[in-house]
Design goal:
Length: about 300
Amino acid sequence: LLSEMVDSGQVVTTDMSVLRGLVPVPSLMGRVIENVSGFSTNTLASSTASHDAPWRARGIRHTTNEFFVDIVDRIDAIVDSSGTCVMYDVMGDISCKSHLSGMPHLVMTLGRARELDDVVFHPCVVRRAWDTDRTIGFVPPDGPFKLASYHVAQSLRSMPLRVLGEARCTENGMTVHVTVEPGETGSRRVENIRVRVPLDSRAYNIGVQCKSGTHIVTTSRHPQVEWTLDSIHATDSLVRLVIQYSLHSAPQTDSTDAAFVTFEVPGYSVSSIKVDALRLLRESYKLFKGVRYSTVAGSFQVRF
């Protein structure tokens, strides 16, 4: 396996689809074939991978020919105490799952494709087609694979979730207020919301008040409060978390200075990158296809 991955000390491939074709999994059937035919299964694998698409074996057959696409946008953002977004970036991945027979050639057309930059493609993609007319032509590997990753230059900073935080020093400790309300999601529901608030390492007597969701208080060397909300709909009102804790010495203004947020919005694409068309060439069977979109939080920080 390492000899196929590395050449002259340099990594040449880590793609699982290519490696599966080059390095067969040892099995009882493989040993039987070697004993009967006198040929090593490694030699057979090399011969099947020597054509123009080494990431795809020849002679693949499926009873149903399906191709599924998942487009996931990831928001990296920093929001200051006034609610102003001081850093905003959108990255994304196009992941696919292919169950197609033969040697199909697919052509995918994306909406707003010209707004993508820093695009990294799977080796199966014909780069010339993308450079010419922004279409993605490829012979897909069999099974799951990542077709592309990208960056989107966003002029409008759309926030699916609005989170604000405030930390105030009291006589013997700190009081932290965190509010969460729905943002711009195209009426989609925001799910799996988690707000993690690291506390001062000297904190004790930690008290939490929240009417929605659940919370977990960690009182180890690095105390923190993790607040979990199952979902928030676009019509829901603001929800609040209040944390109070004591300190043995005078609190510092930066003892609790940020919260870290994760969330997911199924069915919503913050970048508006859509699959406009997916065409099958070189094969005559009917193609069943599906596309899903979602937006998730990457490195999402709210400063107090």
